[in-house]
Design a protein that fits this description.
By secondary structure, this protein is an alpha+beta fold. The protein has one domain. A hairpin with a 6-residue loop joins strand 2 and strand 3.
């Protein structure tokens, strides 16, 4: 009888420990400083692009509602017929992330059309670029060496 009680108590304690362990870690939000990630991308790639410093500029260039954005880092080369753009956004929630992803995909398709019209020799570079979404984090990187830039960004999300 005593063994049975001890066994039940141990099972109950293990169950509590398992559920307590699952509760905290999975609910922690990722803490990523997107401007710092952008600085790392710029340093590693020798970029000197124009910073978009307000959420209003996200609305102007990407049709992204400022209310959907928790934080962002965005830069572009506006003096070029073939745009170079890096946009890193943390949305406020999953629904907002979906809207941001849609807006950036629309912009990416516009950039692809621009390259087709003005610099077709670089279309393959644009086609190798993409819009990504990881939870509430959404990015669009259109640049030479985009794969390495994307890796820097994705590594910061881990």
């Amino acid at each position: 009888m005593m063994k049975r009680i001890v066994s039940l108590v141990l099972v109950a304690l293990l169950a509590v420990a398992v559920f307590a362990g699952c509760g905290g870690a999975g609910n922690d939000a990722k803490k990523v400083d997107l401007p710092a990630v952008m600085d790392s991308i710029n340093s590693a790639n020798g970029l000197s692009l124009e910073k978009l410093d307000s959420a209003d500029m996200l609305t102007r260039y990407y049709s992204i509602d400022a209310a959907d954005v928790k934080q962002f880092a965005a830069e572009m080369d506006k003096n070029n017929d073939a745009p170079v753009e890096i946009v890193l956004i943390e949305a406020v929630d999953a629904d907002a992330a979906g809207r941001v992803e849609t807006a950036l995909t629309t912009r990416y398709n516009s950039i692809l059309r621009t390259y087709n019209s003005y610099t077709p020799e670089k279309v393959a570079m644009v086609e190798a670029c993409k819009v990504t979404k990881d939870g509430n984090f959404v990015s669009m990187i259109v640049a030479d060496n985009a794969a390495a830039m994307l890796k820097t960004y994705q590594d910061s999300l881990k």
